[in-house]
Amino acid sequence: MTAVVTRSFTDFSQIEAVSPDQTPTIAALAEVVGATERAPLADGTTVRYANLDYAASAPALTAVADAVTEALRTYASVHRGAGHLSQITTRRYEQCRETVRRFVRGRADDAVVFTRNTTDAINLAAHVTPGDVVVLDIEHHANLLPWVERKDKWTRIVEVASTIDETLAAVERELEAKPVSLLAVTAASNVTGEVLPISRLASIAHRHGARILVDAAQLVAHRPVSIVSHGIDYLVFSGHKLYAPFGAGVLIGRTDWLDAAQPYLAGGGATADVDVESGCASVSWHTGASRHEAGSPNVLGAIAIAAACEAITELGHEWIGAHEAYLCALLDDGLAEIEGVRPLRVFDDGVERVGIAGFTVDGHTPREVAEYLSAEHGIGVRDGKFCAHPLLNRLGHPDGAVRASFGLGSSSDDVDRLLHALRCLCDHTADASAPRHRKAHR
Fold it and tell me: Boundaries of each Aminotransferase class V domain copy (predicted)?
């Protein structure tokens, strides 16, 4: 399949401003579905919808939607089918594994298991992991709850420190104190966008005889990931954060734990042989990815993920990084100038961030801010605790925060609109709270 993407410029020296005293404009880096949708405003007018909620679900790339539409022409049941369309779909489905493996630079013998989403992939990993696990307290619930809910196995939670170095030292102390099977960490925070040093964490884990699982749901759409170079044992992510439609995720990693564990689901497709004799069933299970993919797989979901991987590869992470760095700087600088807006950070040492910005606005609940941005300006953001309740609590925001996030379909106009809207909100709040002086009666 061929992905078609667009770039808005050939290099950053060619960014053009409308006039010398205006901020340069950056167009979207690729075409996404729904880019021209309009949103109704409270005054009855409509405006182009500014989607700044990519971290929740990125819109599908047009190239991905095209690939799915094309696949429907020859769509049929996979595996064990001799028919022409079944063979085509089976071939395509298995090729998707290789596309995903290449995208994250996996080992040749790694299993690529298609799941429903990141949460499902981590639950599968929790099912097959044989021993105790260490996690951080800043994790998304997807990389926290599957571990703490396991029976007969311990999960130890490490509280991150104010700096990366101190946090890595705390992880090392925990692994030194008592051996564990696995260190499970996020690659990038879904609340603040801060990126953790995966290679250093992998080295610490391996030094103490543990493996590492990386939740890359918020990273793979923004930065290149290499299972081999980073020393990752297991990697998980979702299609819907990678510009593919809802419904599929993936777990890539070493096969021994996967093959040793009972199948994640019991059913057809996972079985090599089933026999019933004297009222008892005897089952032989497949090894490899199919062991944990019982039932009819989400073929179109796998095709969508693979198409997204190809599109991002064709576009190039250097372009994605440059585009995102410019928009991040524009947003950060603008937020810093608005009195009453308070950005969220986990670490004090200025670590790298992907295109995610969490913040609060003085005098307003997160839901009030999100509703105002939608109703008055046609801007979509996320509000709440982002399935990361422990992190929001420790940051001092038990009622949640606001999160703006962007990606390939975002432009500087989207960021400018958000900043303008927040200025309007904060200026109105300041005016409303200013003392009112009445003229004296004579």
Answer: 51-418
